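Posting here for the record, re: FE2/S2 (inorganic) cluster.
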Amino acid sequence: MPKIHFQDSGKTIEVKEGESILQAALRSGIPIEHNCGGVCACSTCHVIVEEGFGQLSEMDEDEEDQLDEAEGLTLKSRLACQAIVRGDLVVRIPPCSKGGHEH
Ligand code: FES
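Prediction output follows.
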């Protein structure tokens, strides 16, 4: 099973076949914001993929459009709900994507 290491919390989780970064994180108790419920209609699930960017499913146009709205966008940014994990990753959750905030 692929693994995701979260830099901020130092936690490493396992990802099931076909899961997105968001699904795997929430299942393992790692909070990532997901205001639209994971349907690519917000940008609160923005994460930065420090390692393993090429191991993710490709970005489509809808995701690119939503990501443009994300705060602190980088070249390694993805929407956690759209990125299907296919190999090991190191991920950073930017402050505004961390769960538990009031918006
Ligand atoms: S949760 Fe809204 S775009 Fe990912």
